[in-house]
């Protein structure tokens, strides 16, 4: 006879179930958008052409590497809050407000514009979560969001700088 599995232990970290669910919903959107932006950036790294090829190819690689390294801490924060992290393309497509990479690679400066808009959008998503995080006194999530906003705003600034005439 098979043993019954024990119920999951109760999570008691000082944040209510309702507040954790609200925070996780926001973090899930942040995760989906970060992953979507990662895929777009990697796609552009592979497909960039033109006179700025070397510099954009290297910059996109640095950016997609940073984004790749960002998804794990976001997913692990979701797990720390007692929820499953989304992780499928279908879930990410449903949660993300970012468009997928264009099927036909755009010109280099259009790639830069798309990535700039993506980083600004992810910064807005992270910032929008602060009221719920503050209400719940969820300092670890606040710290994570502050780090993500800093990266996305700085990256957007660098990309905007390339677009200036």
Automatic annotation (TrEMBL):
Pfam families: Ferritin. It comes from the Bacteria. Transmembrane segments: none annotated. Residues 25-164 form the Ferritin/DPS domain. PROSITE patterns: DPS_2. Belongs to the Dps family. PANTHER family: DNA PROTECTION DURING STARVATION PROTEIN (PTHR42932:SF3), GENERAL STRESS PROTEIN 20U (PTHR42932). This is Dps family protein.
């Amino acid at each position: 006879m098979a043993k019954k599995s024990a119920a999951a232990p109760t999570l008691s970290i000082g944040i209510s179930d309702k507040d954790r669910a609200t925070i996780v919903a926001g973090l899930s959107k942040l995760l989906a958008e970060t992953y979507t932006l990662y895929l777009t950036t990697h796609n552009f790294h592979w497909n960039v052409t033109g006179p700025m090829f070397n510099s954009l190819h290297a910059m996109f690689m640095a950016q997609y590497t940073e984004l790749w390294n960002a998804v794990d801490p976001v997913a692990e924060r979701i797990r720390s809050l007692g929820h499953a992290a989304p992780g499928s393309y279908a879930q990410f497509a449903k949660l993300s407000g970012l468009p997928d990479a264009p099927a036909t690679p755009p010109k280099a400066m259009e790639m830069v514009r798309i990535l700039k808009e993506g980083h600004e959008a992810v910064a807005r998503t992270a910032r929008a979560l602060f009221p719920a995080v503050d209400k719940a006194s969820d300092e670890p999530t606040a710290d994570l969001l502050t780090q993500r906003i800093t990266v996305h705003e700085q990256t957007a600034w660098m990309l905007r700088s390339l677009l200036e005439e």
